[in-house]
Amino acid sequence: MELFRPTETLTIDSAIADSERICQRMLADKRSFGLVGYVGGTPPQIAEYFGQRFGCECINLPSTGTARDYRRSVAVARVFYDHFPASFRRPLSWAYRGMRSTNRMTFPLEFEFGDTWKRDRLPVLLVDDSCLTGRTLEFWKTRIRNELGRATCTFALTTIGRYQTDYWCYKNWHSFAWRPIG
Predict the structure, then answer these.
(1) Among 41, 49, 123, 139, which residue's CB has the most CB atoms within a 10 Å radius?
(2) Model confidence over 121-147: pLDDT tens digits?
(3) Distance (Å, rounded) from C-alpha 45 to C-alpha 15?
(4) Are 143 and 170 spatial neighbours (Cβ–Cβ below 8 Å)?
(5) DSSP class per residue in 37-79
């Protein structure tokens, strides 16, 4: 009996290659976007891929935070992450996600939408590398709708919890080469 499944680490190149089939689905659904907003630590290359495919700019949106600061603990864990057995990586990441999802969230209220956001009325594609609770994406969807009157569409490389994005590549946990924990 296998106690833990082996982990698969996504690289930027594999994430972009896997995003192509999702992009084809978006095009088949006759989606068009005027802007791509990528959340927090999502690699810009993933957002830029969608920006190039839909002919629009990409802008980084601040991520949510937590009332308790886990940055120091996460930094230490990331140093040792590659030395942990592969079977331990998934539970470690789930423990971090559990701490983060049960802690009070803080939202980046100081962010101001610049002129780029106001150029046209086309929908905004919100891109995140991982979606657990959906609170960050819902926060940005609400702000964009309320402040700019623009529709949004969501995409995440991985969806893990109950929240479902409009488009995704994987419906399970993956370790990212660019951010193994979290």
Answers:
(1) 49
(2) 999 999 998 887 788 899 899 999 999
(3) 10
(4) no
(5) EEETTS-HHHHHHHHHHHT-EEEEEPPPEESS--HHHHHHHHH
Other residues' Cβ atoms within 10 Å of the Cβ of residue 126: 27
Helix H or strand E segment including 44: helix 44-54
How many residues in the chain?
182
Give just the sign of the alpha carbon dihedral 44, 24, 64, 142. positive
pTM of the model: 0.75
Q: What would the two tokens of residue 3 be?
A: 């106690």
Distance CA 166, CA 174 (A): 19
CA–CA distance, 60 with 44 (Å, rounded to integer): 8
Q: What is the sign, positive or negative, of the torsion defined by CA atoms of 163, 103, 97, 146?
A: positive
Q: What whole-number distance in Å separates Cα of residue 129 and Cα of residue 39? A: 8
Residue type, 156: A
Rounded distance between C-alpha atoms, residue 55 and residue 36, angstroms: 10
Q: What share of the chain is helix, strand, coil (3-state, %, to 5)?
A: 40, 20, 40
Structure confidence by residue, pLDDT tens digits, 28-63: 999 999 999 998 878 889 999 999 999 999 999 987
